[in-house]
Each structure stands twice: as C-alpha cells, then as structure tokens.
Specification:
Length: 454
C-alpha cells in the first residue's frame, strides 16, 4: 500500500462539462439488473479492499481492481436465488473470530433472508443466518452492548421489527428487541460523544437504543421527522464532534447531541429530501469530510442529483457532484477500492445496472505514519498506519509462513491472520483507535510489540 503519485487509469472514463472536476467511471455491470447497495471492504481477508454490490433482482457481486491489467474483475458471490431482492450489504467480523464475512439481507414479504458469505481461499460459501417473517430493510454490524463483541442488528417491516444476532460459537442467538417497523439503514456508534456505542435505527422516527446491562432502552430522538430512510454519523464539520445526518420525507437534516440540555439540536441542510442514501467521506486533497447524498430511482420518487454538503465554518455549501443523468441513483460507499490509498466514492446506477466510481481531480490520499518496527531473527517488520488500516512492510519477501495476532490490552485476540510465504507487505483493515499488542510467530519463535493506533 505504498503511496503513489501516478495518473489515475480510469475505465470507460467520461467527464461531464459542468462537473469537470469529478471523473466518473463505470467499473462493471450487474447481470440481473437493479444494482442497489454497495460496500467497500476486505471481505476476503486478503489485505485488499473489494467493492461489493447487491442486486434487487438476483444476487451479490464483488469487484476487484486488477492492477496488472488495469481493469476491474467481477466475481459472483451468489446468484439465481428465487425472489431475491437484496436491499443491504455489509462486511464485518460478526463471529468475533477475526475473519471478515459479507452479510446481505433480503426485502421479501414472503420471508426475508439474512445471508452470510465467507471466502475460503478458493470460493465463496453462502449460508442463511435466519429467515425473518417479512421483508428486511436494514442491517448493521457493531458492538452495540460495549462488551467487545460485534453483533448483527436487523430491522424490517412490522412482522420483523428489530432484532439482534450474536454468534455463540456454534449458532446464532436471536434476540427480538422491538416490534416497531423499520425502514432504511442506521448505524452502531457514539453519536452522543460520550465514548459509548449505541444503536441507532430508522422507522417513523429516529430511534436511539442503549444497552442498560440487561436490555435495550429505546428513545425517539425526534418526532419531527417523517420516515428518515437512511442516516449516517460522522464528524462532517471536522471539529472532532460526531453528528447524525438524516435524509427524510421533510428534508435533509443535521442532528447534534447537546450535552448541556441533554436534547438533540436540529438544523436543516435543505427542505429537499425523501429517499436515497447518505455517506460521509474525505474525498478531496483538503482532507475535509463532507456528506454525500442521493435519491434512488425506482422508489417512486424523482431521480435527482448526487449532492455534496460541506461545512464552510458557518453553514453548509451544497454542490452537485454529478447530475441525475449520470445515474448515481442508489446507495453510496467510499473507500480505497483500487488499494492505492486514494479515496473514491462508489455508487450503483439502479436503472442502468452498473457500478460507478467517482474520483475528484485532486483526490485525498491517505497519509501513512510509521508507528513501530519489530525484528524476528533477520526479518524486519516495519509497521505503518493510515487512518483506516495497519500495514506491515517487510525488508524482503517472506521466506516462510507467519502467524500474526492483534491483541487488545484486555488480552482478547481481535485479529488472527496468516502471512504466507512470498509476501512483501500485509494489510490489516478496519482497526479501531486504541492500544494493542501485535504478535508475530514463525512456529519457532514469537515477538510482541505494543502499538498505539491513533
């Protein structure tokens, strides 16, 4: 993951005259059509980012950037499922074994499935976690109980409500949390800036769910919104404070927790809202976060433009990234899909059945910091950190296999990986801030080093 000062090689590139600073490329098509959700993550546990895309007609697909051939390779994770209507896709280590898996959920009134797909090194294996009684509309992954365990959170229509799934080592334990209807996608995170995760979900109102040690307490953040479909949390003002951003039937809004009044302060970004997606990303060389929003065609709402909202110090400036004719009309995600440290935005074209990649002319390149060095015999491991991952760079290609463990200060093994012979570097993605022990073992000796991820 070395920093590169190279020109971007973009397939099927076209630049719109009125939006000339955004390069828009088609990275591939979805065979069955109706490309919907997208997630950029290391679903294969190979240290590489891949782009995952769900289809409301058929199945789940993976796009991988082939640097040697300068093209995107498409892999079918699964397809041909009867009545498949995949509404969301997420990637995470939900079994708490250090292995990322791809999770997708189905919006189907005959019974919504939760699918788990695992790469075994040769092929994708997909199993059904559970089949809900009605359509599923949201999936979230995170430590909602603040006990160090990731869980799946699933929401859907009235017969589904809101449920939590925990892997017990053998099977999934399902806990039904609430009966109210969900629609859209929420998150697990610290929106009150108190150092504790809570679960935030959609429905008729924004809802906050807090684990009290034995159950979840549910609170409506506001009753002024009408069906907040997607919403997102992040430091969009770049002031170190997390806020919630909601796309609703009565506009787009920013919601900040006021610790003094213990209430939520709401400001309107625009009265123009309704359905679509929201995503915070740092895509430009000024290293400033912005929020990106879409409408989604096919949901009985107008096909509108992809908009950027950026804080100017006193208010939000809104700018059209690409207009509706470009077709960025479904969900959004951002990441280093080409594994070159350059941040890009990824957006399905719902009606056109394609996946789009959007790159700013002067993009944000993730900086790298040297945080530690360890030596095992004559082998040096130089440990570099970006703001989303750790990279081990070796002084020469590995001559044997190594085992790598990332251990939290309470002794829990967060990540366990194999570094195979012939590697020059190795990447660990999705590392949270904190203090860890990194341990490398070659079956004869092991060495450990304390590192701090900032």
């Amino acid at each position: 993951m070395k920093l590169k000062n190279t020109f971007l090689v973009v397939l099927n590139l076209f630049v719109l005259s009125s939006f000339a600073q955004w390069n828009v490329a088609t990275i591939g098509n979805i065979p069955a059509g109706n490309a919907f959700d997208v997630c950029v993550a290391d679903g294969r546990n190979d240290g590489l980012q891949h782009v995952y895309n769900s289809s409301r007609n058929d199945g789940l697909y993976e796009f991988t950037w082939n640097e040697a051939n300068h093209q995107w390779d498409r892999t079918t994770i699964y397809s041909g499922i009867t009545d498949a209507n995949l509404i969301q896709v997420e990637v995470g280590a939900c079994r708490n074994d250090g292995i990322n898996r791809v999770y997708s959920v189905e919006w189907n009134h005959n019974g919504g499935h939760i699918y788990e797909s695992t790469w075994d090194g040769t092929q994708w294996n997909t199993v059904t976690v559970y089949t809900e009684a009605d359509g599923i509309t949201e999936i979230m992954i995170g430590d909602g109980r603040n006990d160090g365990l990731n869980r799946l959170y699933i929401g859907g229509y009235a017969a589904v409500g809101f449920n939590e799934y925990t892997w017990n080592g053998t099977s999934w334990d399902r806990v039904h949390l609430y009966d109210f209807e969900m629609e859209g996608n929420g998150f697990v995170g610290d929106a009150t800036n108190n150092g504790q995760n809570e679960v935030y979900s959609t429905g008729e109102f924004l809802r906050q769910m807090t684990w009290n040690g034995s159950s979840f307490d549910s609170t409506s953040i506001t009753n002024t919104f009408i069906w907040p479909d997607p919403f997102y949390m992040g430091d969009v003002r770049n002031d170190g404070i997390n806020r919630i951003y909601a796309n609703t039937n009565n506009g787009r809004h920013e919601i900040s927790y006021n610790s003094s009044s213990q209430n939520w302060d709401i400001i309107s970004l625009t009265a123009n809202g309704k359905r679509g997606d929201m995503r915070m990303a740092k895509l430009k060389s000024d290293a400033k976060n912005a929020i990106y929003t879409t409408y989604a065609t096919g949901w009985n709402y107008p096909n509108n433009s992809l908009i950027e909202y950026k804080w100017n110090g006193t208010s939000y400036d809104s700018t059209v990234v690409v207009d509706a004719s470009t077709g960025a009309t479904a969900m959004l995600n951002a990441g280093v899909g080409r594994n070159d440290d350059t941040m890009r935005l990824y957006a399905p074209n719902y009606a056109g059945n394609t996946m789009l990649e959007l790159t700013w002319a002067d993009p944000y390149v993730i900086p790298t910091t040297n945080i530690a060095n360890i030596k095992l015999n004559d082998f040096n491991f130089n440990i570099l950190q970006t703001n989303y991952s750790i990279e081990l760079v070796f002084n020469k290609p590995t001559e044997k296999n190594y085992t790598l463990n990332l251990i939290s200060i309470n002794g829990k093994v967060n990540i366990a990986k194999q570094i195979i012979k012939g590697k020059s570097n190795f990447i660990l993605n999705g590392i949270r801030k904190g203090v860890y022990i990194i341990r490398v073992n070659d079956n004869l000796q092991s060495i450990s080093k304390k590192i701090m991820v900032l």
